[in-house]
Structures are given as structure tokens and as C-alpha cells.
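Sample entry was shown:

___
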Amino acid sequence: MASKKSRRHDLIQQVVQEQGGVSVGALADMFGVSMQTIRRDLDLLCDGETLHRAHGRIELAEGRRNTPFDQRAGTNLVGKRAIANAAAAMIPNGATVFISIGSTVLSVARALHRKRELTVVTNNLSAAMALSEEISNRIIVPGGELRLPDRDFVGEEVVEFFGRYRAEFALFGTAGIGAEGELLEFHQAEVRATDRMWQNARTSILVIDRSKFGRLAPAVGGNIAQIDHIICDRAPAAPFDQLVERLGGRITFAEDIG
């Protein structure tokens, strides 16, 4: 029981680091526990130096607040560039492409700037803006509320949005990968949107860096074994050797190319 609570505490801290802040109710829904349980967790976690409470939310303390998405986008630039170039090489001119949320996926969108006449269906506003510089592209985005600071759209409307289209390629990332290859996210809405994308595409392409292997997140989606192509910067740590071996030629380590 203690280890379960400890894991939940670690995940709460990850969620806040990712998003900058989250409501008590959202955390209770995310972990399937009562509001009272979450409040007890927060009594232990909110020390004022790293995390603090504000109007029914838990947030990063003032001195720790950065723009989480921009912070992620600025890490592992060499690895993300290699991943992006390898993924972009798979997309021909004139293709229809689903593009999901995430900083690694945004790197791929930027690497697609040389492509022409793409039809891009995305809930990632930053990716849409990067690809809008090529006027031969057609870009389709959902309506609704823009989530900040990530500049993306999430929710059931987005799941329905992706359900109305079919694509040749689906480009997406994931928050973490479990020991058995489970694709993990911080919200079930993100899981459902990603599932709908790769189910409605002829070819699914997962883009990740090695840090995602073993990274925890509470919402479980599909499995990496269901994906057509996985592009990673470098091989993950030894505990994932067997998983990589089972993937065989479907996984590419982009920094090894060339």
C-alpha cells in the first residue's frame, strides 16, 4: 500500500511538472481515488518550495515555474533533430498526415518544412503554425479551448475530430513506455486521441527519445508492439533490451543513421 501511495506521489509531481498546475478534482479522476485521498497526498507534497496549493489546484512554486512545453522543447536538441529528420524522410510530398501533441512531434513538424502539398490534421497548434509557412499545405485543426502553455487542443471533441478523417501517416509521441511496452499518458483524453489517430492511419510512426522508456504516467493506452515504426534517438537502458529485440526492424535509432 505504501509503495502504491509513493508511486502516486511521484506521478502527481510529474503531472505538475508537465503542466505547471492541475486541479484537485482532475488528480482524483486521473488516479481513481477520492478527493479526500488527494488532499491528504497534497498535505505531504506541498512544502511551499517546490509545490503549493492555490484555489483548489496544486501548482509549481513561484520560483520553479517555467513554461513546461518550451522547457521540454529545448532539451535533447541533437537527439530530437535526428529523430525529426528520420521521421520526415518517411513522409512524401502530397501525403495526408495526422500530427499529435508533444515537443518531439513538433520537431518533426519543423523538419517537414521542405515538403509540399501536405494535408495536415493536427491538434498541435505549434505544429500547424510551423507547417503553415508552406502555402501549398492544407492544415486542418479542431475547434475548442486551447490548452496553455502547450498550445494544443485536448478532450473528447478532439477524439471525434480525428475520427472524421483518414490519413496515410500518423505521427505521435507518448509520455512514457512501460516495462511491457505499454504506451502511457497523463490523461485518458490524450490516450483516446492518439488511439484514434493511429487506428485511422495506414502507417503509424511513434517518435520518442530514450528517456521515455521506464517513465511513469497514469493513463495506459495501446502497446508499442502495435505501432508500425518507432523512431528513437538512441537505444534505451538494458532493462528494455528484450522489448527492443521483439520490435526488430520496426525500431530505428536515429543517431546511428549515417
Summary: DSSP finds ten helices and 13 strands in the chain.
